[in-house]
């Protein structure tokens, strides 16, 4: 069996493992398996040295990764009206198995997840932390509280503090938390945005600091996954002098759900 066929077989086994966990109600295990497989597929999509797959096949792999993240997001947001169902995800099994010969239209109207740097073990990046930040290491606590200010920086809703991160993995910090904006989207004034501030505790200085921030503007508020950029502190609610946190491809990954009044 060729190396590429072994890789496809490994992906298929991971896919089956995830959907089995999902059907058995083992949601935490299913989410982990989906996210692991999504990263493996994205790594192949982003590889510039690999000639095992054509550009069209890589595009299909990227769309499968998107669907895996959508299903993972649905499992984490149990109140979602825009959930990506297990039965829909299972339709992708034959595509993974036959990726080398698959030439039909993809069954779902999705786009590949935007490219982001995926590092090999030992190449983990630390967001260019200051010395005292790095000293805190894995024992530090991070939170990503959202807030919705207007163009003058005045909060339209109370700031919501999220629980600290649930786990760290390579360049990812996982929060796995649902946050509900306490106002109808239609009632947010023109120019408003939803901000997310990445906060972490500095043990040496004994206070919580904002490391960076991200935001969604009104036209970005729509159901499904979204990847948004991280900017340097201080938080610029007026969005006049934005500076990217780093040239490295690091982002805040969210899954949005819009609720309709019954």
How does this structure look, described?
There is one protein chain. The chain is an alpha+beta fold and 262 residues long. 31% of the residues lie in helices and 17% in strands. The protein contains 6 helices and 9 strands. Strands 1, 2, 5, 6 and 8 form a 5-stranded antiparallel beta sheet that branches. A hairpin with a 4-residue loop joins strand 5 (193-202) and strand 6. Helix 1 (3-24) packs antiparallel against helix 2 (27-46) and helix 2 packs antiparallel against helix 3 (55-76). The longest helix has 22 residues, at 3-24. It is elongated and about 60 Å long. The chain starts with a helix and ends in a 6-residue tail after the last strand. Residues 116-140 have low confidence and may be disordered.
Write the SSE topology.
Layout: H1 3-24, H2 27-46, H3 55-76, H4 86-90, H5 93-97, H6 131-136, E1 142-143, E2 146-147, E3 167-169, E4 172-174, E5 193-202, E6 207-217, E7 224-229, E8 231-232, E9 251-256
Antiparallel strand pairs: 1-5, 2-5, 3-4, 5-6, 6-8, 7-9
Helix pairs in contact: 1-2, 2-3
Question: Counting H and I runs of at least 4 residues, what is the number of helices?
Answer: 6
Mean pLDDT: 78
Strand content: 15-25%
H-E order: HHHHHHEEEEEEEEE
Share of residues in helices: 25-40%
Structural class: alpha+beta
Oligomer: single chain
Q: What characteristic shape results from the CA principal axes?
A: elongated
Distance, first to last CA: 55 Å
Q: What integer value in Å does the Rg equal?
A: 20 Å
Beta-strand segment tally: 9
């Amino acid at each position: 069996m060729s190396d590429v066929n072994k890789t496809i077989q490994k992906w298929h086994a991971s896919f089956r493992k995830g959907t089995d966990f999902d059907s058995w109600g083992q949601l935490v295990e299913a989410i982990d398996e989906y996210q692991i497989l999504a990263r493996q597929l994205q790594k192949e999509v982003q590889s510039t040295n690999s000639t095992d797959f054509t550009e069209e096949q890589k595009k299909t792999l990227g769309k499968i990764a998107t669907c895996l993240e959508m299903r993972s997001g649905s499992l984490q947001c149990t109140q979602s009206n825009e959930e990506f169902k297990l039965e829909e995800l299972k339709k992708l099994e034959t595509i993974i198995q036959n990726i080398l010969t698959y030439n039909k239209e993809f069954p779902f109207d999705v786009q590949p997840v935007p490219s982001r740097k995926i590092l090999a073990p030992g190449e983990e990046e630390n967001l260019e932390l200051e010395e005292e930040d790095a000293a805190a290491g894995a024992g530090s606590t991070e939170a990503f509280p959202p807030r919705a200010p207007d163009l003058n920086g005045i909060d339209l809703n109370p700031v919501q503090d999220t629980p600290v991160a649930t786990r760290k993995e390579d360049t990812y910090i996982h929060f796995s938390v649902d946050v509900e904006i306490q106002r109808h989207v239609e009632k947010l004034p023109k120019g408003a945005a939803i901000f997310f501030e990445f906060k972490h505790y500095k043990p040496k200085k004994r206070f919580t600091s904002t490391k960076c921030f991200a935001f969604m503007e009104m036209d970005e508020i729509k159901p499904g996954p979204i990847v948004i950029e991280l900017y340097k502190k201080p938080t610029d609610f007026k969005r006049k002098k934005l500076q990217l946190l780093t040239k490295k491809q690091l982002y805040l990954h969210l899954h949005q759900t819009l609720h309709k009044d019954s």
